[in-house]
Sequence to fold (146 residues):
Amino acid sequence: MRIAYIYDKSADIAADWDVAKTFLDTSKTDRLDLAALLDKGGLHPGDLLVICAKSQLGHGAAAARNEARVVAIGATIEVRAIPATRRKKTGRISEIGPDDKTVICGAWHGSQPLATCQAIARRRTDLDLSRHQLNRLCDGSRSAKD
Fold:
């Protein structure tokens, strides 16, 4: 049986892991589900324990001990990478090209709401621009947009 153990992360990361059971701990639960997994029959010989990193099994030497306990039970460990999330890209508005600036400022000076202008800027430049940055980019001639 494929079993997932997740520590201090969202259970959503195991959505595509194809597991029958998920054990989920947070920093506040003091790894109670890990104890249930290793000590109270949550893991059986032949099971496959799916984790996103070996550090999920504990800190320092505790991780190595818990890994050895999993092997002693007769289970194996599979480490699955967490899908990368899109980080907010910040940058200088001076790096925005003239064609992109024309399109962004056209929307900014037009009747488009702030959220639409930000979406256009994000599509054109992959930058998340604030209202302040849009004002600076477009010469500050429009500042009352909400």
